[in-house]
Amino acid sequence: MPRYVAFLRAINVGGHVVKMNVLREQFEALGFADVDTFIASGNVLFSSRAKDVAGLERKIEGRLKAALGYEVATFVRTCDEVSAVAGYAPFPVATLRTAVSLWVGFLAVPVPSAGKEALRALETPIHAFHVNGREIYWLRRTKQSESKLSNTVIERALKARCSFRGMNTIVRLTWRLSQSSGEIIPSPRS
User: Fold this and answer.
1) Model pTM?
2) Which of 66, 85, 111, 183 could cross-link 178 (Cys pair, CB 3.0–4.6 Å)?
């Protein structure tokens, strides 16, 4: 049975607090198997016979809105897609060395040309972007607290919702997925 990861946007912000056991129960109520959460920031691992990723996203969003009373944008990826994101090199090594952090933004559909242009307009000496399909890689050369650029600003520029995760989280998640599949992948550095 295929294994997936749902990246939930803003599940625990704006005064909302959803415990991970409640989140797991909501996914299990949808008929998903092997449900698990990964850190309390809206990463849910699950198995489903369904192959329609967009259909899975709609199904999860509908269930969470009904159960929680607010919209939770959901971005589903297969385990192979998450692994590909973790292994992707969006910037040269020398550029990565200048970064304070590298973030990955998950979208429902590939970024269109207009979205790529909007991201280019947001680039500064401290912010760089790279697009690959349904993911945006955001390199920051300063702490988030010292920047005027935020996830919300990026969403407005793209005219699309997205959910960001730090690359370290994606690498650790990939390692976790490999443990559940029996695949041998070296443990990431803590």
Assistant:
1) 0.90
2) 183
